Amino acid sequence: MCKLQSSDIFKPGTFPEYTYISRLSSELNYSYEIRLQQALNTSGYLTSIIGPSKTGKTVLCEKVIGQDKIVSLTGNDFKNSNDFWSVVAKRAEIALEGEQTEMDTYESHNQINNTIRRSVTFKEKYLSSKEAIINYFKGNNLVLVLDDFHYAPTELQFDIAYQLKDAIRKEFKVVIISLPHRADDAIRKNPDLSGRLSLINIEPWQTHELREIAITGFNKLNIDISDAFAERLAVESLTSPQLMQSICLSLSTIQNIDLDSNIKSIEDESIIDNSCKFNALNLNYKDVIKKLKEGPSTRGQQRKTYEIMNGQKVDIYSFILRAIAENPPIISIHLEELKNRVDKLINSTVNRIDKNKIRDSLGKLQDIVNDSEPIYQVFEWKDNQIYVLDPLFLFYLRWGKY
Ligand SMILES: Nc1ncnc2c1ncn2[C@@H]1O[C@H](COP(=O)(O)OP(=O)(O)OP(=O)(O)O)[C@@H](O)[C@H]1O
Ligand SMILES: [Mg+2]
Fold first, then answer.
1. Please, what are the domains in the chain?
2. pTM above 0.85, yes or no
3. Averaged pLDDT of the chain
């Protein structure tokens, strides 16, 4: 067998065959795989997976259901069609033929132009397309995975929930994936579905779980790394397995480990800093940071600046972003901690920033985030705490050039 390359091992964008790590869900101490399996085995129930972005929701479904058994749709697929079942049929590549409605005839024309992977003919006049699709899914052990459900138009979310309520009774298997707090109303708080839901909450990754990715991966590449080295990588990965996969891949690239067979171990922690900088080159948060640094409109007024220990002068918004990026890298930072960081950074012989100023400025930053497109919604400021919603943003803030 030919030698595995680092790009086979570390897969930040797809299913990580060699570095898949199974985790326990703290709510029940069973693995997420067992919980999803159990949910899928429960007939008549709909499975709702909720978890922060890039925490492995899609990969979990691929692991448990199998890529070839998933029919995947996203909330976006419903932007141009409000007929749930025709969207599902199209994605499953079911050519609906025979005595069907006009809509179905149109669908089958479409299928002729596209390559048809699967094709079934429904001769029975009484079968509606919906029932035909349900039977097709059951007959082929397929599971509908509705990803990023929160992107479906709100009115449609309720209609989809209504359609699914009936379908799951007929043993149609469906998993709905969404970000926390984004699709609660149509699914988790929908009285029609109460008592018919299997709920799986994916939690952010802990450092000991992230460490496993690096240890397993470098082990497969026959390279020794110490626990301390793996720990440092895990801390920089900021609860994101995707970041861990991509930092390890960047590290392998800059160390040339695929071609240099003399490398048996990696110890020098400065390599981690270089890998993080290299990795940040692929991320694009420049516009987000620019917008946050600009802060609210000053109506032409010059904003007050504060001097940092290194002599540089920055305004309050740049100062706060800098404090968020400081060590230790954490994704939820309390006002007290932020104030400590500001105190450490500022040249206190020249100036000071009090807690109220930090609090007010964060409120203004939150207003900017609220009024901006989803790409800008990288953190949330509430109850005197900053919650970084997108770990890649914090990573870029620490390592990117902007
Ligand atoms: N169990 C795991 N073990 C190792 N790596 C993982 C695991 N789960 C996810 N990853 C890594 O994280 C990446 C992102 O995972 P995935 O796409 O499943 O996240 P997601 O929660 O679906 O993200 P999004 O919110 O963008 O849909 C994967 O491509 C993989 O590199
Ligand atoms: Mg996903």
1. 6-13+206-280 (1.10.8.60), 24-201 (3.40.50), 286-395 (no CATH)
2. yes
3. 88
Q: What is the pLDDT of residue 225?
A: 96
As a whole number of angstroms, the distance between CA 230 and CA 238 comes to 13
- Which pLDDT score is estimated for 124? 39
Q: Which contiguous run of DSSP H or E holds residue 30?
A: strand 30-31
pLDDT band (50, 70, 90) for residue 125 = very low
Q: How confident is the model at residue 243 (pLDDT cuts 50, 70, 90)?
A: very high
Helix axis angle, 355-370 to 335-345, nearest 10°: 110
DSSP category for residue 187: I
Q: What ranges make up the beta strands (E) of 243-376? A: 265-266, 305-307, 313-315, 332-334
59-107 tens-digit pLDDT: 999 999 999 999 999 988 988 777 889 899 888 887 655 434 444 433 4
pLDDT at 58 > cutoff 70: yes
Judge contact between 362 and 320, C-beta under 8 A.
yes
Query: Cβ(20) to ligand 1 under 6 A?
Result: yes
The answer to whether 243 and 267 are in contact (CB under 8 A) is no
Residues 6+ apart with CB under 8 A from 327: none
Alpha-carbon distance of 130 to 140, in angstroms, equals 16
Amino acid at residue number 109: H
Residue 94 has which token pair?
């079911």
- Count the Cβ atoms, other than its own, within 10 Å of residue 181: 11
Q: Are 345 and 323 in contact (CB under 8 A)?
A: yes
Q: Is the CB of 74 under 6 A from ligand 1?
A: no
Among 48, 58, 76, 233, the mutation site with the greatest number of ligand 1 atoms within 8 A of its Cβ is: 58
Q: Give the residue among 292, 289, 268 at the shortest CA–CA distance from 392.
A: 289
CA of 23 to the centre of ligand 1 (A): 13
Question: What token pair was written down for 58?
Answer: 């899609």
Whether residue 49 is predicted with pLDDT greater than 90 in this model: the reply is yes
